[in-house]
Amino acid sequence: MKRFNLQDVFLINQVTRSESIPEMEGRNYFEIIFIEKGKGKHFINEFIVHYEKGDIFLVAPEDKHHFIIEEETIFCYFQFTELLFSSKMNLPDRSYWMQRIEHIINHPNLMPGDVMHSSYDRNLIWHIHEVIIAEYNAAKEFHKHNISNMVSTILSIIARNIAREFTPSVKKSEDKHATIDQILSHIRKHTYDTNLMKISAIANKFHMTNSALSAYFKKHTGDSLHHYILMYKLHMVKYRLKNTDFTVSEIAYQMGFTDESHLTRIFKKYNQVTPKKYKLQDLTEQETKDLNKKR
Q1: What is the pTM of this model?
Q2: By three-state DSSP, how is residue 113 classified?
Q3: Which residues does the UniProt record annotate as the domain HTH araC/xylS-type (predicted)?
Q4: Fold annotation for 2-166
Q5: Interatomic CA distance for residues 33 and 92, integer angstroms
Q6: What does DSSP say about strands 56-59 and 47-52: parallel, antiparallel, or unpaired?
Q7: CA distance 14 to 16
Q8: Where in the chain is the domain with CATH 1.10.10.60?
Q9: How does DSSP assign 215-248, residue by residue?
């Protein structure tokens, strides 16, 4: 095993294994996993997928996964946290990066298999993978800056493959109104745009009246459109509190709340704690896990 460190925010692990890899617990980082050789099965959450040479997997901190190896396999892991991007990016750029990673992780139609569906994009990512390893090993001036840019590029390419593969399409023979999947997809895609999240804007997008859209959404989800959007936004808020160093004020701005006090009031109403206390509780739990590991 070769292990290289980059200020605790980016790590490359190149591993050759002929025996199964057990599940890792307590991870607080993302993994992009490249299969350089071999084949077997990847168990991720409740799914089982086959892997082979050339496959690429993206694993989030919350995912539970392990590999069953059928033929000797060479893995290359890119392991990183959001802090890889924090030193070089201003707020708008980091917010854009978070939107990309959140779209990938929270897309409900995403199957946890090989994330590439375009041969062009697959070849492009493998090329970037080689450049990152070279830059990482050389450790020349600005190498961290270059690596963070290239990892961000890989995530953007993965995001567009997911969007291309799983965005619902409308058949001409179907009713002119959108399916509920299309409405949900629209909400997830535009969560950060307050204007596009207005009921009137969504109704106009899908050629419905406000009342017709609200009734249609309620019928097919059992939830009101306004409540669903709010709950989805709060889900994103929790994600950012746990996985980034954004302040509550910054998150409030990013997610379209009036200000920090507005977000705090809404967050506490549904979670019984303030955003700051929620983040502190999560940090305390993580520190406890880390301490137990050292014992």
Answers
A1: 0.60
A2: coil
A3: 181-281
A4: Jelly Rolls (2.60.120)
A5: 28
A6: unpaired
A7: 7
A8: 180-283
A9: HHHHHHHSS-HHHHHHHHHHHHHHHHHHH----H
Q: Where are the alpha helices (DSSP H) in 90-224?
A: 91-106, 119-138, 143-166, 180-189, 199-205, 210-221
Retrieve residue 6's tokens.
């980059």
CATH number assigned to the domain with residue range 180-283, chosen from the 4 options 3.40.50.720, 3.40.50.9100, 1.20.58.220, 1.10.10.60: 1.10.10.60
To which residue do tokens 């750029």 refer?
Answer: 93
Place of tokens 């994600």: 239
Looking up tokens 């059992």, which residue turns up? 222
User: At residue 53, what is the residue type?
Assistant: K
Q: With bands split at pLDDT 50, 70 and 90, how would you rate the model's confidence at 94?
A: low
Closest CA to 197 of 224, 167, 168, 225: 225
Report how far apart, in Å, the C-alpha atoms of 211 and of each of 3, 9, 225 are: 58, 48, 11
Distance of alpha carbon 161 from the chain centroid = 13
- Distance from C-alpha of 52 to C-alpha of 41, rounded to nearest angstrom: 9
Q: Which residue blocks in 139-179 are alpha helix, DSSP H?
A: 143-166
